[in-house]
Amino acid sequence: MKRKLTVYPAIDFSEGKCVRLLNGRFDKMQVYEGTPVEKAKSFADEGAEWIHMVDMDAVRDPSKYQKDVLRAVIEESGLKVQMGGGIRNPGRLEELYNLGVSRVVVGSMAVTAPALIKQWLRHYGGERLTLAFDVVETRGIPYVMIDGWRKKTPVGLWSMLKVYKDEGLRHCLCTDVRRDGALSGPSFSLYNEMIRQAPKVEVQASGGVTTLSDIEQLKLSGVHGVVVGKALYEGYFRLREIISLC
């Protein structure tokens, strides 16, 4: 039986507007027509079950968390929401769950506070958390970026997988920052190696998806999910076309 590939259409939002970055750079932010609620409802109409949301304002300043936007999307779209952006403490985590977020994405803290994140995995369970690693490859090693892709760490992705793969981690999202928003194709070799090193973890690919053949190849590679953003917004394909392949 073929495994289903879960498609996560992306809604990155800033000041209540849908945006996309290029290579994780805030000075390369592009604003798109339509509110996050309108975009989420259109994704639902095309057959989406999930959306992947990132509060770009909270990434830079957690106090600028756009709760009203998130609440409206959850209430009006009916979609399951995987949500990230500036999540630094258990209070914010609980608030997101109480709003109806199905799965919270934790990025920087997975690198800077592994003991705490292990506690969260034990307390909430692996189905409620996605650990996100944004990476930049240097001499063949994918190093993890933190603080909204602004700071490169000396920590490699493979080290992070070793830390968490036996600690209840189920969902792991990995973005190749140099491919994010660049429409240059996914980093297939990166995801193949992730699956090899942590076969029990459900890998979500993010960054670079441009064609329907990219989706087909990702499905064959064994990843469990794919986040698709700019190619949808730029009209390279329709969401329903992707879902029909998955």
Task: Supply the CATH architecture.
Answer: Alpha-Beta Barrel
The fraction of residues in strands falls at 25-35%
Mean pLDDT value: 92
Which descriptor suits the 3D outline? Answer: globular
Strand-and-helix sequence, N→C? EEEHEHHEHEHHEEEHEHEHEHH
The number of domains is 1
Strand arrangement within the widest β-sheet reads 1-4-5-6-7-10-11-12
The helix fraction, in percent, is 25-40%
Which residues form runs of ≥5 with pLDDT under 50?
none
Name the CATH superfamily assignment: Aldolase class I
Sheet having the most strands: 8 strands, parallel, barrel
Structural class: alpha/beta
CATH class: Alpha Beta
Textual characterization of the structure:
The chain has an eight-stranded parallel barrel, surrounded by six helices. It has helices spanning 36-45, 56-60, 67-77, 90-99, 108-112, 114-124, 157-164, 188-197, 212-221, 230-233, 239-245; strands spanning 6-14, 17-22, 25-32, 50-55, 80-84, 103-106, 129-138, 141-146, 151-156, 171-176, 202-206, 225-228. Strand 2 and strand 3 form a beta hairpin. The longest helix has 11 residues, at 67-77. Helices cover 37% and strands 30% of the residues. The two termini are 13 Å apart. It is globular, with a radius of gyration of 16 Å. It has a single domain, classed as Aldolase class I (TIM Barrel).
